[in-house]
Write a structure and sequence with these properties.
Strand content: under 5%
Number of strands: 0
Shape: globular
Helix content: 55-70%
Number of domains: 2
Keywords: Coiled coil
Order of helices and strands: HHHHHHHHHH
Largest sheet: none
Structural class: mainly alpha
Amino acid sequence: MSQFKWQQTIATAYFLSVTPYLAKGIITHEEDRNMNLTEDMLELMRREADSANNRITMISMHVRDKYVMPRLANAMNNLKLKHIVYGEYHSIDTSVATLNMLEIIIKNINSMTGVGIDMYSLIQLGLFLRQQGQNVDFVKLETWLGRLGIKKMVNLIGNMLILFFGFDDDEIPFVHGKDSKAVILMNSFMDKVKDTVGAHPVENMTEMDNVPRLTVGRVFSGIRYFGYMPAETVCRTVSDFTKRLSEIEE
């Protein structure tokens, strides 16, 4: 691959906030002469890989003495979530891996209904399935998803993993059918990535800090998921709209 294409690939990784994963892959194969990376590129990737080692390996060792779960937007769902976490944490057969899986799922949901698809969180979910999936109680997990009213949304996220990362259907037990919207969402997402990175060409590695991150979505971007989880979507949209109004007033 040409050095220009490597620059654009690295810039895309920065834009998506997934540089640690790219860096680990590059450093694993840095002795391959066909890689065609400059020394500046390799040095940048070495630094990223070193800083990312603990962050990535912790995905498979995600255990806490006192569990703190991300919040949902809907107050009733959030109360149900607290009961789920409290009950599981004090259970005689506590499944930490299942709680971890629920946490990563909720992070993905919060991102999608807020700023849009978060590739870092999606990769986290895929890694956790591959590394710790055998320790997850999927029967328990699906019961929780049903109580929270997010099963359909999680099925959509699972379809994204199958579409984008090549998972097989049987690798993701919480996927119970194809969802054509996954293709539409991922194609729209990748078009946005191409447009943004293309509008910010990177001439050398010292400019990587200037690559824009995918952070801010539209106020009503989450409303597209109304059919998947109505209560959560409405509460998230109202919350974001109120927050934006308060920022304008300030």
